Amino acid sequence: MKHTFKIFRYDPAKERQPRYQEYQVEAEPTDKILDCLNRIRWEQDSSLTYRMSCAHGVCGSDAMRINGICALACQRLIKDYGEGPLLIEPLPQFPVLKDLLVDLTAFFEKYRGIWPYLLPDDPAPEKERLQSPEERMAFDEAIRCILCGCCTAACPILEDNQQFLGPAALLRAFRYLFDSRDRQKGKRMELLDDENAIWGCKTHGKCTEVCPKEIQVTQSLGRVKKKIYDSKKAP
Amino acid sequence: MKHDVVIIGSGIAGLRAAVELAAHADVAIVSKVFPTRSHSGAAQGGITAALGNEEEDRWEWHMFDTVKGSDFLGDQDAIEIMVRDAPRAIIELEHMGVPFSRTAEGTIAQRAFGGHTRDFGKAPVKRACYASDRTGRIILDTLFEQSIKAGVQCYAEFIMIDLLFNATRCVGVVLLELATGKIHAVHTRALLLATGGAGKIYKTTSNCFSNTGDALSIVLQKGLPLQDMECLQFHPTGIKGLGILMSEAARGEGGILLNRHGERFMERYAPVIKDLAPRDIVSRAIVREIREGNGVGGSDYVHLDLTALGPEKIKERLWEIASFATIYAGVDPVHEPVPVQPTCHYIMGGIPTDVDGRVLGADEHKPVPGLFAAGESSCVSVHGANRLGCNSLLDLVVFGRRAGKAILSSLQDGGVTHDKPDSPGSGRDTIEKLLAARGKERVPAIRRELQELMTDHCSVFRDHRGLETAQVKITELKHRYRDIGLSCRDRHFNLELIEALEGEHLLNCAEVIVLSALHRRESRGAHYREDYPERNDQDFLHHTLVATGSGGMEITTKPVQITRFKPVARTY
Ligand SMILES: Cc1cc2nc3c(=O)[nH]c(=O)nc-3n(C[C@H](O)[C@H](O)[C@H](O)COP(=O)(O)OP(=O)(O)OC[C@H]3O[C@@H](n4cnc5c(N)ncnc54)[C@H](O)[C@@H]3O)c2cc1C
Ligand code: FES
Fold first, then answer.
1. Which ligand is closest in space to the CA of residue B144?
2. pTM for the whole thing?
3. Pocket lined around ligand 2, Cβ cut-off 6 Å
4. What is the Cα–Cα distance from A89 to B171, expressed in whole angstroms?
């Protein structure tokens, strides 16, 4: 069956204004949106630009807005959407570099800033550091994160405050703060105890709604808040 | 631009080397995609080491399994290095922060995987260390985060298009910057190639769009050889029609394969370890079942049945692959079997290296100064004619680190300076020509034809006629490629341009694969010739090397290193 794709096009190097372009694509209900974009690019318009790599929701390259909702184009199928044209736009909040491809520099800067690595006790033991299955499961969901940026793009706080770290960076901070092997929890909590860090989150929950990996982002950030709050209460 | 060391590829192999070098040298990593988008992140099942955390295990058993799994084509000196180093490598990853799943005692949990056995083949053994079913992604993330901590510079969305030489020494690399279309010559004292696989040669594959064999093809164009390229792995359980992987961990945790009669057919093909036989054997069994009309509904797939595992185990250990089945096949594996068929997965062959990542040249297999390789794009060779599950991630971290160390000692050798290349290379010309190309052929069409051709004639089963057909048609496709036209003329973010470059790499790799497959007139591991169904140690217990000589592509051979285990019949 033929489907209409209405796609955001913008090349800041050549155009003053974004525009929307329509394409007709032959597609099965089980085809991925990414398949359709590729078909357009390979058969109709080779200038259409976006990122992609794994094509099955593990690399995080092809986050974009599909019918207004942030998602991975490789993880959404035609049948997930009703009749009528599919509206394909770049992730909001990030500067557009070309069509659906956005500049993620600021996103990764924030992620780098939260010390995204284990800060354990030195020296390391001869064998593995022990961790119980319960301790390990405490952050199991968070390691599903693929840094696709859907959550951060969907976060309404960032619309008004670009300084806010955003859910993806904070979720990674959660992952290390709740890893029993990490021994710099005090310092981590100091880093996160800020209006532009954890307290920037006002539990809108958009991040959790859009997360392609079904991570309870808002809840995890809530646990960070509670941990910081409790640590201050303790004598 | 100038760096002491440039690493092409930010998968686990490249990053492991980068982390090794960071404190001691000016090292930069270059990648087509942002590092954490590399395809190492797709690895699900685990990484092997004889830790013995769950049950008794020994490196000698791991070595035997790897040698037997390789159908005796793996170099045993290299395999011994890998399996003996494995426990250290895993502990090191754990110390870096990899959140492995845990046993009740708090040690690293392990599970069964295809071809890994106790006591030289007696029964399956739990050897694969895992982090749920996201082992590769989490190792990739952890290593990337270590590289951030160490301050490694990263050029993301830069594409290697050529290598620079001074006489026989590699002295740099030419990069295309995706965002601008600018071309950069980077002068290096050492260059490491770690560009991963080439699965996009086939119609269905578990590989990502950027696995197009770039380094293999570029090295070949520089007159250097490729080794054992006929040895390609088809994973038995790709989701039907899509190739998205249902990890072997599914069978390691107790899943089984069923044909249309609901029969657990692997019992007939591998009576001892059944569904946990190595991949080449399981893939052939599936194709045979399908050919004999035992595919589900008489069609071209079989069932992977996980319903006995229960929802808890699936959620805890196989959440992600269960989500793939649900999203892409519309099947909930807790309750229904998943339709699967073999899919192109891994290339055992690649750029020949010694056990320290030094690239070996065509000239008496001597190292090429300044040039190193690691990971799936290299061929050490530890996987021989068939890789065992979870041995790739191990290969990446063991030999990635060793390459890093070897690079470091090469730098400390004061003689290695930034030498000027003999010529600026052909990279710039290639790009200008492509941007101006107005021929009538289109890259997507050529690529699709190549993928169909290779799928039809050079997959799980091969024979002379099919391979010859493939050879003739690849020559035709290469001819047609010379007449391609591009319609996007942008310099910045020109995906059509990138795919044109990749298209040529795919053609080059396919040509070598078919030539090597024609040469090997025997069946060994994943290379199965229906016209020569037996293994023939007398004539073919050697590595295949293909290089471009004066008269086109030439085949030579190299002996296999056999130390502990003499070839014996391979049954399971
Ligand atoms: C779905 C799947 C599941 C798997 N599961 C397992 C498992 O459980 N256990 C196991 O041991 N193995 C597994 N494997 C195999 C293993 O994951 C791969 O062999 C391995 O990750 C390859 O790693 P690499 O570092 O060599 O390359 P990759 O991770 O593929 O990285 C290649 C890098 O090279 C870059 N690159 C490529 N070309 C260029 C160029 N021209 N210029 C610049 N950069 C370039 C890419 O951007 C990328 O950064 C699996 C493979 C797949 C596909
Ligand atoms: S292409 Fe990798 S997540 Fe979609």
1. 1
2. 0.97
3. A 52-55, 57-62, 72, 74
4. 43
